[in-house]
């Protein structure tokens, strides 16, 4: 499988993308997308120092043209700044939820991007498990980036 290169514009989360700031989704740079790719999906997972990992963002049907822009609104179906569909994260909300570690603790965020050969017919609000099942057999590429946030 040909890997994707996935990067964010920072290694440590700025406040803008956390609960200490505006809590907006970050810009994700995706490179190396093959020509047959029809859509991208992203699952972001938070891993606190204490406790289980949680899914923080579930989004799919992103057009594979250029970077995934920052500031995707927490709505089920989004038309701007990019067309996409979002699911419900493990915090019970639709869309992105940034890191919110306790003071002195560190959270690692894994952004995994899937390149698919189709558009998913998955209802808005689906969770990450439903997304994974819907992508089965259609994932052509995978890439990931890890970013940290210390409270």
Automatic annotation (TrEMBL):
Q: Which domain of life is it from?
A: Archaea
> Which SUPFAM superfamilies does the annotation name?
PEBP-like
For this protein, the record's InterPro entries field holds:
PEBP, PEBP-like_sf, YbhB_YbcL/LppC-like
Endpoints of the signal sequence? none
Designated name of the protein: Phosphatidylethanolamine-binding protein
